[in-house]
# Entry
Amino acid sequence: MIDTLILGAGAAGLSAARALHNAGKRVVVLEARDRIGGRAWTDTTWEGIPIELGAEFIHGEHVSTHALVRKFGLTTLPARRHEARYMHWHVSGDRLRAMDDLPPQLAQDWATTSALYEALAARADDAPDLSLRDYLASHHPHWNDDNYRMADVLLAQTCCASLDTLSCADLANEMKRDRAGKLESRIAEGYSELFWRMVEECSIDVRLNVVVRSITWSREGVQVTTEAGEIYAARACVITLPVAVLQHGGIQFDPPLPTAKQRAIWAFRVEPATKLIYRFKTTVWQADMRYIAHADPTGRWWLPGEERRDASPIITQFVTADRAHRSDNLLEARALAEGLEALGMVLNVSAEGIQQSVTKSRRVSWAHDPFARGGYAHLPPGHADARAVLAAPLDDVLFFAGEATAYDSNPQTVHGALDSGTRAAREVLA
Ligand SMILES: Cc1cc2nc3c(=O)[nH]c(=O)nc-3n(C[C@H](O)[C@H](O)[C@H](O)COP(=O)(O)OP(=O)(O)OC[C@H]3O[C@@H](n4cnc5c(N)ncnc54)[C@H](O)[C@@H]3O)c2cc1C
# Structure
């Protein structure tokens, strides 16, 4: 008899599997795709640089990912994209400016924008929950459209959301617990390598290409039925499926999940997240540029190979929410062409010149992926308690993990997902 079935071989599922395996439990992981890693997925076909198609950064020097990176002998490379000299802002009609060269008023407003999370950490627990836009309007009455555009690109888009749908109470909850640290890095070998090492270390039994379709549960245990009609029985089950997959309804629960759990699932919003990746013959940007942000539809750009001086010049555009909707609704070739046009405009390089220099490009749209159905989940105002409700076990048989459940860590991240898997494993063992 399997002790615990784990649904999903992303960060949360593999970390739960590892913790349960190390506690002597018989664990089987069911994964719909033909690979592990979920929303972290490294493409190794870009001439030596592992390109992250999903999660790219380790956000913070204190987060749990580093212990795994060290354990498996992997290397991290510092990502310095947010340092003022490397980060560039472009307002339409202006030139591209490093953050330490912004006009004084914008520089002052940028300082308030970047300090927003610290300000939210001081928010009273019983203050009314507002959208990020309403919070900014009440705290910064002098802000104009440019300020809101900057906050949209640098804050809301990072959270895969718009200013109108982000709950300040949820952000504040996270900030109050946040111990991650400010330094960012990448895994030199790529995120996928980390997950393969986790599986190999414990010979975790992962079954690929197994699409879960229904979960029958009672106090005695669970039966999981797959698309191919196979049935897996176990004493307990850890569900790490993305919230948008649960919302989609492709997985039946028998009996249905309690109303509170269903409400929690439906409280989340999941917006698209899309990357456009381009490789050039030679760099078309200046040497001290590592990050560009601007208010136009193409949003944010950075250099996946920023620490590798010998690497091919590769740039990634990352858009979420309304910007990603727009990109996803175009044919891939059109989306890539528009992205390139925007890059040329921001860098002040002719469209023709920049096009001729491209040697490879691709779009990765997570909303188009049936096993993700979007980027990462956020909570609108009034629903800040949904993470803990989603995470709560049912009858000591169904357990819940995944980035959206990371109420005691940083949701929307790989380390948050890893922490949620460890938390769910502790709950199973208890
Ligand atoms: C474009 C993008 C960029 C990001 N950038 C960063 C970043 O820089 N840093 C960071 O920390 N985080 C980043 N994130 C967020 C991070 O990727 C996620 O928070 C994390 O990987 C989620 O892990 P998870 O285990 O909760 O879910 P997932 O990784 O989605 O794992 C769930 C698993 O369930 C499987 N599954 C789905 N349906 C079924 C089914 N029916 N049957 C069986 N299996 C199923 C999926 O295939 C998947 O493998 C990014 C995410 C995206 C999309």
Observations:
- The chain has a mean pLDDT of 94.
- The two ends are 19 Å apart (CA to CA).
